[in-house]
Automatic annotation (TrEMBL):
This is Glycosyltransferase. It holds the Pfam family UDPGT. One of its GO terms (molecular function) is UDP-glycosyltransferase activity. PANTHER family: GLYCOSYLTRANSFERASE-RELATED, UDP-GLYCOSYLTRANSFERASE 72E1. Belongs to the UDP-glycosyltransferase family. It comes from Dendrobium nobile. Keywords: Glycosyltransferase, Transferase. InterPro entries: UDP_glucos_trans.
C-alpha cells in the first residue's frame, strides 16, 4: 500500500521577531497536532543573522524545513528611504523567487497552502499565480484587522486626516477607535506609506482566509463581527512560544527575588528609546524603590553598551534591587517567572499575548504602529493594564515612571491594580481554554486545516 504523504504548507515570515515567532508557532501546530509538514521561508538581511532569529530557526522540530531567500538587492532605493520601504520593496521583489519555490513544491502534489503574515501581503498574489490557497496570518488584534479591512470606507467618511478626526471612529463590533491611535501611514494621508496602506487593504480581500493571532474571549465584539464577513476570519490564537528551559543571568537573578516583586520593563524586539528617555526611566525606576528588570536599548547607540549612557552611578546604586539587561531578555521565561509582578510594555501584540498567557498585569507605554490602539484596548476594555502618561516633548518624565511603577506594583489598595491582576488571571485561563481541544481557537484552526487537507484530495 502506498504511503500517503503529509500535506505541506509554506509560510513566509517577514523580517522581525514579532512576525517570525507567530509564523513559527503556526508551523509547529501544523506539524505537531495535524501531521503536516511545513517550510518556513525567511528573508536574508534585516535581523535574520541575529542570534535570537537563528536560535529560533534551529530549534524548529523535525517536519519543518527553514529556508532563507537569497539576498535581494534594494541598492537602487534612495539612501533616505524610510524603514518600511526597504522591507516592502524586498518583499515585493521576492515574488519571482517565491513563485519558483512554490511551483517546485507543488510538483510533489502535497502543497496545500501558502501563508504570509500581514507585512508580507505583497507576496500573497503568488499563491493565485501558481494555483494554491493563499492565507494570511494576521499578527495583531481583531480591532486592527477591522481597520485594515474597512480602510477605504473609513477614509471616505472623513474629509480630514484620520489623526485629526474629532469623533471616535466606529467599526462593526469594535468599541470606539481614536484616529490618532492608528498607525502613522493610515492616520496621515501625506505619509509616504499611505498609498501602500490603501493598496494592502485591497490585498487582504484576496486571501482565501485570514487567521488571527487573537482569541474570541479577548475581543468578542470584533471577532464576532468579522466571522460573518469575507474573506472568512479565524481566531486561532494565542500563538506564543512554550516557555523554554533556558538559563540566563537575569533568570538566575529573578530566582533570588521575592514572589511578584519585580517589574519587567521592555519595549519589544526593535523598540529603542532616546538617551533622554533612558535617563528618565532609570531615575524613575530608582525613585520608585521597586525591584526591576529592565531591557535597555538606546537609539543610535549601535553595538556600544547602553548602560554607558545611563545616569552616572545608577547601575551601582540600584544593584541590590534592579538588573539592567543589554538589548534582549528571554521574555517568555521572564514573564512566566514567579518573581515577575508587572510588565511595563510597548504593547506590541506578541508581548501583549505573552503577558496574558502568564497572567501578568501591565503598564501600557505604546511607542508606534498600532501600539496606541492596543494600549487603549488593554486599559479601557480588557482592563489588564494601567496607563503610562506621556509628558511634553514626547518624553515620559521620571516622576511619571515612578508613579506608574508604584501604581502597577503597589497599588493594590486603589482597586485598579487588584482588578487588573484579577483580569490578567482570568485572561490567562481564557487563553488556555481557547487553544485546548474544543476551545474556540482550536476548533477554528481545525476548520482551516480541514480545508487545506481537502484541497489535496
Ligand atoms: N522579545 C524577547 N526578548 C526581548 C525583546 C523581545 O524575547 O528582549 C520577543 C518577545 O517575547 C516577543 C517579540 O520578541 O515575542 C516581540 O514582539 P512584539 O510584537 O511584542 O513587539 P515588536 O518587537 O514586534 O515590536
Amino acid at each position: 500500500e502506498q504511503k500517503i504523504k503529509a500535506p505541506h504548507v509554506v509560510l513566509l515570515a517577514s523580517p522581525g521577531m514579532g512576525h517570525l515567532i507567530p509564523i513559527a508557532e503556526l508551523a509547529k501546530r501544523l506539524v505537531i497536532h495535524h501531521n503536516f509538514t511545513a517550510t518556513v521561508v525567511t528573508f536574508s538581511g534585516f535581523s535574520s543573522q541575529s542570534p535570537h532569529h537563528l536560535s529560533l530557526l534551529s530549534s524548529l522540530p523535525a517536519g519543518i524545513t527553514s529556508l532563507s531567500l537569497p539576498h535581494i538587492s534594494i541598492d537602487d532605493l534612495p539612501s533616505d528611504a524610510r524603514a518600511m520601504t526597504p522591507i516592502s520593496t524586498t518583499i515585493a521583489r521576492s515574488r519571482p523567487l517565491l513563485h519558483d519555490i512554490l511551483l517546485n513544491l507543488k510538483s510533489s502534489g502535497t502543497l496545500a497552502a501558502f501563508v504570509v503574515d500581514n507585512l508580507g501581503l505583497a507576496a500573497l498574489p503568488v499563491a493565485k499565480e501558481i494555483g494554491v490557497l493563499g492565507y494570511l496570518l494576521f499578527t495583531s488584534c481583531f480591532t486592527m484587522l477591522s481597520v485594515e479591512l474597512h480602510l477605504p470606507e473609513l477614509l471616505d467618511t472623513v474629509t480630514c486626516d484620520l489623526r485629526d478626526h474629532p469623533d471616535p471612529l466606529r467599526l462593526p463590533g469594535c468599541s470606539e477607535i481614536r484616529g490618532r491611535d492608528l498607525p502613522e501611514p493610515i492616520r496621515n494621508r501625506s505619509h509616504p506609506g499611505h498609498r501602500l496602506a490603501i493598496y494592502q487593504s485591497s490585498v487582504y480581500k484576496e486571501a482565501a482566509g485570514i487567521l488571527v493571532n487573537s482569541f474570541e474571549a479577548l475581543e468578542p465584539g470584533p471577532a464576532e463581527a468579522l466571522k460573518s464577513g469575507s474573506p472568512p476570519v479565524y481566531p486561532i490564537g494565542p500563538l506564543v512560544r512554550a516557555r523554554p528551559l533556558e538559563s540566563a543571568d537575569c533568570l538566575r537573578w529573578l530566582d533570588r527575588q521575592p514572589e511578584a516583586s519585580v517589574v519587567f520593563v521592555s519595549f519589544g524586539s526593535a523598540g529603542a528609546v532616546s538617551r533622554a528617555q533612558a535617563e528618565e526611566i532609570a531615575l524613575g525606576l530608582e525613585m520608585s524603590k521597586n525591584r526591576f528588570l529592565w531591557v535597555v536599548r538606546v537609539a543610535g547607540q549601535g553595538e556600544s553598551p547602553a548602560a554607558r549612557v545611563l545616569p552616572e552611578g545608577f547601575v551601582e546604586r540600584t544593584k541590590e534591587v534592579g538588573m539592567v539587561v543589554e538589548g534582549w531578555a528571554p521574555q517568555m521565561s521572564v514573564l512566566g517567572h514567579v518573581a515577575t509582578g508587572g510588565f511595563i510594555s510597548h504593547c506590541g501584540w506578541n508581548s501583549v499575548l505573552e503577558s496574558l498567557v502568564n497572567g501578568v498585569a501591565m503598564a501600557a507605554w505604546p511607542l508606534q504602529h498600532e501600539q496606541p490602539m492596543n494600549a487603549r484596548m488593554l486599559v479601557e476594555e480588557v482592563r489588564i493594564a494601567v496607563r503610562v502618561r506621556m509628558g511634553g516633548e514626547g518624553l515620559v518624565r521620571r516622576e511619571e515612571v515612578c508613579r506608574a511603577v508604584r501604581e502597577l506594583m503597589e497599588g493594590e489598595e486603589t482597586g485598579k491594580v487588584a482588578r487588573a491582576r484579577a483580569r490578567a488571571r482570568e485572561m490567562r485561563e481564557a487563553a488556555v481554554k481557547a487553544v485546548e481541544e474544543e476551545g474556540s481557537s482550536c476548533r477554528a484552526f481545525a476548520e482551516v486545516v480541514g480545508q487545506w487537507r481537502s484541497c489535496l484530495s
